[in-house]
Amino acid sequence: MKFVLLFASIICIVDSSSLSCGPDGLCQCEHIDVMDCSENKQLPLRNVCDYMDDSKDVNITILHLEQNGYKYIRTEDIKGCKSLKTLFLKLNEISYIEDVSLTKFDNLKTLDMSFNQLDIYNKRGTLAFKLPLSLKKLVLNGNLNVTDYGGAMYPDLSNLFNVEQLIFDGLKDTNFPESYSEIQSLRSVSLSGLDGNCSIPYVSNDTFQHLTHVRTLNLSFCNIQNVTAGAFEKLKNLEVLDLSQNMNIGFRKAMNVTYSLQFTKIKSLNISKLYPTFGLGTQIKLQDLCYLWNTNLTELVLNDNRIELIDRNVLILTPNTLKIIRAEGNTFTFGPYLYQLGCMSHLEEFYGNFQSIVRDPHLYMKEPNTDESELITINLNCPYTAPEVLKNISKMKRGLCPYLKDNKININKTFPTFPTKMKRLEFSNCGMQYNATDILVKPVPYKMEYIDASDNILYSWIGPCGPFPNVKYLNLSRNYCSHIGLNFFDSFKNLENLQIQENFLGLVLSNEYYGPGIFEKLSKVKVMNLSSNIISYLHPTVFSNMVHLTKLDLSVNNIESLDIDVGSLNNLMHLNLKFNFIHSVPSHLREKLELNSKRLNKNFTIDLSNNTLSVSCDEKDFLEWMVKHRMNMLNFDHYKFHNMSGQRVNAERFVSDVMKLDMDCGSYSLPIVACSIGISVYLSVVIGGAIYKNRWNLRYLMRMNKIKHFGYIRLHQYFNEPERFMYDAFISYANEDLRFILDVMMPKLEGHGLKLCLHDKDFLPGNNIADNILQAIGDSRKTVAVISEQFLKSEWCLFEFNMARMESIYSRGGNSCLIIVILEDVPTRNMSNEMLDWMRTNTYIEYTQEENGELLFWDNFLRVLNA
Description:
42 strands, 5-stranded parallel β-sheet, 25% helix, Rossmann fold, alpha/beta, 23-stranded mixed β-sheet, Leucine-rich repeat, LRR (right-handed beta-alpha superhelix)
């Protein structure tokens, strides 16, 4: 009994995310050595330290005291805390620390006093209090008094011979004193304005000359506007430099930065966001980064620089040590530089995600407005830009890095080269809209293992693509793809993880010609994700050759029966079938999972969440099998269970009903009744499905028939003359968007002499709403659907859209009368299939408030309306 109680106590302690501790139990102790008394606990500092001193059975080494409103620290208040190794006093109001109060903290390694009111950066360059000599990390940023900014100095810390990391505010027109060259342990200095104050408009040769032992220097968001050519020359040990988010530097000035890095041990350079978000596209010129050739740089970060083009031959000067490039959030376009990718001969990882993404317009007001035409010219003559030097370097790279004399390239005869040592390539969410036909990669990237091209518009994968003989992970999800060629995956013979979810592959995977051969060469795939692909039926042999398949995800589809050949799937252990229409799992699939589990000595799993599982004599074998293996059914207790009467029951009741099936299914009458009901339900589903599939056609024809017999005959029909319309356009919109219609659209269109029909002012009172809608569509030359989130939630808006769609198909001789205006960013998952189909085959217009974009929108909109 004692053992049980002890075990239960241990479990409770392990399961507890945090325990109350400290004075009056107002603090939290998530770990045995961490106490958190932060965030306005209003605990006197002496009470906290006395608690630590009195509690002999606890060994607190890390103490959080942030945001407690402390104004001063005295020796008597903290004497009980002297065993601490880490102390956080961030975001208080501390303006005074008694001279020797911290000197007794012989074990203190980390001290964070950021965002207080301490006189750290005074004109004397000294601290009014002494710090423990054991410190390795000191955080003092956020203590800068802006009114005294001009006379501020960095404090003298030469006595801290163990300190390794300093986090300060960045001071304007201030150099680090010579005493910092004596701190041989100092490895990292951060002056970033992202978490503190930093304004260093001018970085001179003297600013950091005494940080001779520093390896990491963070100058991000420091309002740097100019850098001298020797700014970092004396930092002989510098390995990591972060200059990101200094939006006034630009690549023209970056040449000075790269010049001084030749004399350092630089390995990682972050020059992200050297420009504001909005402006002209950036072109990297040959001289901008030319001095990097003479460094041992291994990582280059170029995110969010609006990079559009790279001059020819720039890539020749990438150092042979370069292994990682991060260039996300740019706007790369086609250019000759793409034929010189092989120049990056040792590149292993490239991250180019989020190309051409839409930016938040509010950033325009928050960022500096830099006139790039006025950027200063750097008077450095980089010797590596000479044609003869470039040609020699090109020859050293053995044919993989061609020297381009000019920008004239015959793309039919010249093949781009690929970095031979590339391992990882990410180009996700870039708006690439292509039919992926044959994509030839030379030379063969034998080391490539990871490719992510998800969230694009690669709508058809024809192939062949590659070769990529050793790629193990491929992500092509969310690409609107509806077709895969039989040769597309031929070169991915060692692929192990294939992510192709959220496409439109249902039809091609059920096709008798394509279905069996698409995945034929992917015998080594272990994980496959086919969720959200509108799959209702799979060709039986679609997975036949995937002998190593372990995990198969078919969730969020329309699958009713999973009749696939599993004879060769000897490693299949995990099957995700949630959010389908499955009533049972075939016996051959169940048997295969059991055999695999026994042979591999592992538990198989199936997820049937959000399917409808009913107690039925017809599915007796499957239901009994599922109950027997319910521990293998993921989320079993939350399945949708129904009894024989169709009532929803919980998992416990369902199991009980299944256990009684032997008795309930003994008579013949029950099967007969069940069969009769099943046939009736089946016919109902078939008929209902047919009606549902053609519901809009039927509703339109019924309404038109009603108007034909009970309405009036148009004069143009009677005299066989061309139709004249009462309105130029019928505007279909959600009531929540009325202000946009009245304040923006109506004045703009009526100002051009167009007559509009709006349901709020032109529908006849007393008439049936549906009749009013059809009358308005028929009386209008065009119907404009203003698509928004609220539009998709309105049944009448969707009715108007579909009636206009039917009008275009049946009553206008094939001439479309429907115009779609996208008012706001609407996820495609919220759109109906009819709307998605229409938008795939018809153009639509997107509204924007950006000045030039809005002018173009109205120009296009008026042209379409008048067509």
